[in-house]
Amino acid sequence: MRQYQTKAELIQTIQDTFQKYITEFEEIPEEWRHQHHDEVDKSPSENLSYQLGWLHLLLDWEAQEKNGVAVQTPAAGYKWNQLGALYEQFYQRYGQLSLKEQQQQLTQLVEELCQWISTLSDTELFEPGQRKWATTKAQWPLYKWIHINSVAPFTNFRTKIRKWKRLVMA
C-alpha cells in the first residue's frame, strides 16, 4: 500500500486519481448505465454506487464517533464477511440515480473527504489508534483507511470501467 508523507500529498493523490476515474463516465450513455458484460463485474452504475457507498460509510464512521456514537463497521447490520450484501445495498440505494447524479454526488463526497482530511492533525492521520472505528488488529492509521476507500478503488475501478467501455461501447 502506498505511503504518504503529508496530508497535502494524500489529498492531491485522491484528487488526481478521482479526476482520472470520474472522466471515464462522461461518454457513457445514460441508457447503458445498468448494462453488464461477462468480463467486467460491475455495470457503470454499480461501479459508481460502490464508490458512493464506501465514501459515505467512511465519512459516516467519523461523524458518528465525533457524536459519541459507537460505530459498527463496516455498517449497521453487516459484518466484514457480508460485503456482497452490503454492495447490493449500495447498488439499490444509488442505482436509482442517473449517472450524472451519481457523478455529482461522488464529486461532492470527494470534496468532503478532502476537507475532512485537511482538518486532521499529522498524528490523527498517520499514527494508529486515533479513532475507535479505525482500531483493528492491523492497527492501521487513518490514512490507510482513507487510501483503501478512495485512491485504491479509483485506480482499480478506472481500469474496470475502461475495459467495460472497450467491450460494450466498441
UniProtKB/TrEMBL annotation:
Q: Which domain of life is it from?
A: Bacteria
Q: What are the transmembrane regions? A: none
Q: Which Pfam families match?
A: DUF1706 (PF08020)
**Name used for this protein in its record:** ClbS/DfsB family four-helix bundle protein
Name its species.
Enterococcus gallinarum
- What lineage does the source organism belong to? Bacteria, Bacillati, Bacillota, Bacilli, Lactobacillales
